[in-house]
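Appendix B, Record 12. Input sequence as logged:
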Amino acid sequence: MNSVFWVGYLVVIIGLMYFIAIRPQSKEKKRREELMASIAVGDSVLTTSGFYGVIIDMSDDTVIVEFGSNKNCRIPMKKDAIVQVEKPNQA
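Logged structural output:
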């Protein structure tokens, strides 16, 4: 009886670890991959540093983002620096 209790206890602990640590992390990774796949030229984005801009050009892992109303402020950055995307037709 004592060994059955410990095996059950171990199963419960492993199950809790899955639902607390592993499952949310995999959901966040899937959401992030969907976000990166949905990025397109003309989208308004929020960067990790808190700047809002519009994507004007893209390559495999970098984007050129135009910040503010000054058309000369264009900065290349990695796609990973984007945390939020707003499509132009959602505004």
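DSSP finds one helix and five strands in the chain.
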